[in-house]
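I would like you to sit down with the pair of lines that follows and say whether tokens and residues agree.
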Amino acid sequence: MLRVSRLYPKSRVGRALATTKRYQSSVCGAYFPDEPSRPELITERIPGPSGIKLNEDLGKVFDNRASNFVTDYFNSIGNYISDADGNKLLDVYCQISSIALGYNNPALIEMAKSDSMINALVNRPALACFPSIDYGKILNEGILAAAPPGMDKVWTALSGSCANETAYKAAFMYQEAKRRGSIDFTSEELTSVMENKAPGASEKVILSFDKGFHGRLFGSLSTTRSKAIHKLDIPAFPWPKAPFPQLKYPLDEFVNENHSEEERCLAILEDIITKKHPPHNIAAIVVEPVQSEGGDVHATPFFFQGLRDLTKKHEILMIVDEVQTGIGATGKFWAHEHWNLSEPPDMVSFSKKFQAAGFYFTDPELQPNKPFRQFNTWCGDPSKALIAKSIYQEISKNNLVQKTAQVGDYLYKSLSSVFSKYPDRIKNLRGENMGTFIAWDCVSPEERNKLLLACRTKGVNIGGCGEVTVRLRPTLVFENKHADVLANILEDSLKDLYK
């Protein structure tokens, strides 16, 4: 078996990895006493021969063209993902930000073996019609216990895209109910909607932001603006978009310029609201705390505070899409907690790290006035809500949000040191004081992809986004020892690429 310390015995990587065991934390150690202290590499290339063959077979029955490598989840552990050939890589991509507590976490395995899980799996209910006797308790002890400040209700859904779609539906029904007042549906509305026409079919819109990503279903895709390939050939609603600030880095060197950029974007947004659409035509805006698929694009609290003020001023609902940013990765349980808003958003959607999905809200008027309007067969999944409950309880018990904030500070400083040696190749390091939600830019898509491949070859699974960005999405049990592995392999990869 080829190990990183043998591959690079004289490098900073090898020296650092040889001492990582002394940094073992009680949380990670308790969960994963057998987690590797370093990547374990068996084949010269990843994927290896077994993985290539398995992927070829899979491709005969399933579209696998986006596959990086076939994974052995039975053999993956903690922060390390195993491929089909037995290579174990430090995973800082984690199923596109979806693994909260590491692979094969014993607390989640225990929940998976419970009678409650068996009941939820073999008797999966149509929740809106036949809710289980324990669903309220499951929600109150998990998903609702984790609710953002100021929110006390939830609609559970099937995926992040589904969560956003149902939030949009809630926004439309809410705004049309306000317009209609106490009057019930008219015969004209009931007739015209069956022809997909107004007044029964609302002509209101959802506003999103350039480079935003909110999913791939029809409504969510109409608000997605990150890459053309996501949207091609799919009919779309003619909904508006507004510019999202493009900040300059380092932030402390461009305070005035960035403030002006955010003021510019807020002014354009208000112009869109007041001059380019009829009054009250925009039902809601949807925004990510960090535009993740669009290239990890950040804005400051000032911008988001301005958004909230504008939505209140013009009676527009504010939906915060925390599908990728939520559940602790930014050093707050919910990323929008960094903003110090004058009052909470109207809705917050979630998925990924909770391995469940839905949106939070408080105003009971966001629940439609008749049954079967916000509805599908499943309306979520009790088995996923049970996993979310376990994830929340483990996060709380082990103080993992605060620990992620601390590890993020450590990692950011380490990366700053490494990247300072390559100022012409690595730019715009960002995510300071945002936990491990960290990213940087390469000078071209080609160089970004070479860096991702070089890291994989040396034992780190890492992902990109946008045109030239590398993003980090590790678990909440990612610790200083893992940060050392990452920083050293990044440094070694950069040395190889730019000798």
